Amino acid sequence: MTTTEPAPAPYVDPVLRAELTLIKVGLTGYQARVLVALVERDGVPAGSDDLADMSGVPRTSVYATARTLVGMGLVTQVDVPCPRRWLSGNWSMTRFRLRSHIERGHAEQVRALDELDPG
To answer: What is the pTM of this model?
Structure first.
């Protein structure tokens, strides 16, 4: 009798896995890609050109995407030494901030449901 070992799990690039997870929890593809690019910079701010190169998001969409991430509390805009540069914390901080953002959103959805009165 021969025993076979289970096949190893296929390799999934950690960056791609992070992007897919962020999309699963509600970010758009562009938001996920820009956020991963910033987290991977480990606290070093990036401008729109850098983010476009790192994330593959068109430069013309980076500013609006980063601004949305700022509004979600996931990214910080820093204007020193140059205007329109963004940074993010490490993965632990990003997870905490994203969890808080999601919980706030769900609380608003629950309140809206509580106010629902079809007639």
So the answer is: 0.79
For the chain, residues with pLDDT lower than 70 are 1-2, 81, 118-119
How confident is the model at residue 77, as a pLDDT? Answer: 92
Q: CATH no. for residue 35?
A: 1.10.10.10
Q: Which residues contact 42 (CB under 8 A, 6 or more apart)?
A: 90
pLDDT for the residue 104:
84
Kindly report the CA angle at 38 between 97 and 74, in degrees rounded to 5?
Answer: 20
Q: Is residue 5 included in any domain, yes or no?
A: no
In a domain, 33, yes or no: yes
- In angstroms, the Cα distances linking 77 to 7, 13, 36, 71 are 45, 28, 16, 10
In a domain, 66, yes or no: yes
